[in-house]
Every structure is written in structure tokens, then in C-alpha cells.
Design a protein that fits this description.
It is a single chain. By secondary structure, the chain is of the alpha/beta class. The chain has 13 helices and 8 strands. The protein has an 8-stranded mixed β-barrel with strand order 1-2-3-4-5-6-7-8, surrounded by 4 helices. Helix 4 runs parallel beside helix 6. The structure holds ligand C2E and magnesium ion (MG) (3 copies). It comes from Neptunicella marina. This is EAL domain-containing protein.
């Protein structure tokens, strides 16, 4: 309008906003096509989680990757949020579930039996078909629910608490493992989480990345592990980047460790190779 046109800085600002807005729309459009075409732009990476006491590989976390039609890598932090805003997350999560379940089954046919965790969003959790989709997917591939862990954040569970609680209970009763991702940066208290049938807490990597250099983080992490264990949770640390942090977490009694020090997220084929190598050492 006339008033804002007269104001150059404001017009400038709006032009920038429009550009960012258009870019977001373009990314969402590209993502939608990538899901529908399923032509290899989207794929899963798998990052091992090892038992702290003996280094044994116990699980993997499935992490989505997108290299778009122009060969550009777009980080999941960026496009997951856009997918959530654009109402595309349900479709995307279904693609993830289907891909991961098929992968676990395929590994089993190669005699590799491993649990994989899948990250879900608040919208997935409260979507009417979530459990049904997951359940029909594992039935189709004849996979036991014990091979799937669902990772959700405290924030995801608090968005629609009643509904989330019901789904979490159903997931649990169907035999899925439930994990709280990014634990420690959310708002919920342990006593609240204890009321839900959750299996594990993943301590957020912001506490772990520089653990070896931060006495404050060491106190927080050590007492979180103690308290978590008292309440019956399996305790996992993500973002383990060096031997010093690995050893501290082992000393603190952390159950499972995940991070670049052990391995970066790997393609399905690279994971199998990495595993064969790792187990020979
Ligand atoms: P997250 O679920 O907390 O996953 C852990 C992130 O930490 C991953 O980033 C992983 O690559 C990274 N990471 C692991 N070890 C280390 C380490 O030692 N150092 C550092 N600096 N980082 C480490 P990524 O793959 O970029 O994923 C970022 C986030 O995007 C995930 O955080 C998750 O919230 C979301 N995400 C990824 N894949 C999916 C998916 O399939 N569905 C949904 N809904 N969200 C996903
Ligand atoms: Mg996660
Ligand atoms: Mg997550
Ligand atoms: Mg996390």
C-alpha cells in the first residue's frame, strides 16, 4: 500500500521476506516431488549406537537425507521443519517408516538383526493413522515390533498431551520401544515423563559435545544418568565425539553411546561394511 511504499527500509525488508517465503515454497514443492517420485533423492542414513561397557553395536538411529534434484544437500533440520509447517510431514514420515522397516527386514535376510530408531514429529504422533500405518507396515514386511524404536521429543509429547499419551501407550502395548530424544533441553520434568511408558532417554548432544571440557556438563550428565536409572530408563548419549567423552560416559554408567567418535551416520551399504570391520576388531 501507499504508506509502506513510501517507506524504503520497510519495502526492502518485505522484499527479503518475500524471497525467503518463495524459497520455502520452492523447497516444499521439491520435497513433495521427491517423496512422490521416490527416485533416490531421499534416502536414510544409519548411525550405530553401542553399549558403553563393551562397545557392542546394539542399535542404529535412522536419519533422513535429501540430495535434491540439483544435487544440493539440504539438512534435515531445515526441511523437516518446513515439512511440518506445510502439512507434508505425515507423508514424509510414512516414507521413512516404510523405507526403514524394509531395510531392517533386508538386513535380517543377510543375518544382521538390529533395532532401528525412527524420529517422529508431534503431528505424526497425534495423526489418526500413525499407529495403523506403522503396524500395517511391519505386518507387511513380517517384522517384529521389537526391532523398532520411536524417538520423540518432550515438546512433541506436550503439544497435545492427552492424545500423545494415548498413542504412546498404544505403541508400547504393540511392542515398540519408546525413546525421548534431545532430553534435557525441553520443559518436562522427569516425574512427568515417568508417568508415560517410555523406555529410554537420549541426553541432548548439547550436554555431550564438549563434555570432556565442561565440569558443569559432567555434573549434569552424571546426575541425569543416576536419576534416569533410578526411574528405570535406559540412558543414551548422542554427540559423543571423542575418547575422553566416551570414557566419562562409560564411567557415569551411561548405557548406550552414539556419535562421530563411534561412527558418522552411514548409508545402508556402508553400515554393513562398517559393522563387519568393527566386529573384526
Ligand atoms: P536427532 O534426532 O537428535 O539426531 C541426531 C543428530 O545429531 C543427527 O543430525 C546426527 O547426524 C547428529 N550427530 C550424531 N552424532 C553426532 C556427533 O558426534 N556430533 C555432532 N555434531 N552431531 C552428531 P541430522 O542427521 O542432521 O538430523 C538432525 C535432526 O533432524 C535430528 O536430530 C532429527 O530431529 C531430525 N531428523 C533426522 N531424520 C529425521 C527423520 O527421518 N524424521 C524426522 N521427523 N526427523 C528427522
Ligand atoms: Mg533422534
Ligand atoms: Mg529427533
Ligand atoms: Mg537428538
Amino acid at each position: 500500500d501507499a504508506a509502506s511504499n513510501a517507506n524504503l527500509p520497510l519495502r526492502f525488508y518485505q522484499a527479503g521476506e518475500d524471497e525467503a517465503h518463495l524459497e520455502r515454497i520452492a523447497i516444499v514443492e521439491d520435497l513433495k516431488n521427491a517423496i512422490e517420485m521416490d527416485d533416490g533423492q531421499l534416502f536414510m542414513a544409519y548411525q550405530p549406537k553401542v553399549r558403553a561397557t563393551n562397545g557392542k553395536v546394539e542399535k542404529v538411529e535412522a536419519l533422513i537425507r535429501w540430495i535434491n534434484k540439483d544435487g544440493k544437500f539440504i539438512p534435515p533440520d531445515v526441511f523437516i521443519e518446513l515439512a511440518e509447517q506445510a502439512g507434508l510431514i505425515i507423508q514424509l514420515t510414512q516414507w521413512v517408516i516404510n523405507t526403514v522397516v524394509a531395510q531392517i527386514k533386508s538386513w535380517q535376510q543377510q543375518d544382521v538383526f538390529i533395532n532401528a530408531s525412527i524420529n517422529v514429529s508431534a503431528q505424526d504422533l497425534t495423526h489418526a493413522d500413525f499407529l495403523e500405518y506403522l503396524q500395517s507396515c511391519i505386518e507387511f514386511h513380517q517384522l517384529d515390533a521389537g526391532f523398532i524404536t520411536i524417538e520423540l521429543t518432550e515438546r512433541d509429547m506436550m503439544e497435545d498431551e492427552q492424545k500423545a499419551l494415548a498413542v504412546v501407550e498404544q505403541l508400547k502395548s504393540h511392542g515398540f520401544t519408546l525413546s525421548v530424544d534431545d532430553y534435557g533441553v525441553g520443559q518436562s520434568s522427569l516425574s512427568k515423563l515417568k508417568q508415560l511408558p517410555l523406555d529410554e532417554l537420549k541426553i541432548d548432544k548439547s550436554f555431550i559435545l564438549t563434555l570432556d571440557q565442561s565440569p558443569g556438563d559432567q555434573i549434569i550428565v552424571k546426575s541425569t544418568i543416576l536419576l534416569g536409572h533410578e526411574l528405570g530408563f535406559t540412558m543414551v548419549a548422542e554427540g559423543v565425539e571423542n575418547l575422553a567423552s566416551y570414557n566419562l560416559l562409560k564411567e557415569f554408567g551411561c548405557d548406550q553411546l552414539q556419535g562421530y567418535f563411534i561412527s558418522r551416520p552411514l548409508s545402508a551399504a556402508d553400515f554393513i561394511q562398517w559393522l563387519a570391520n568393527y566386529e573384526n576388531h
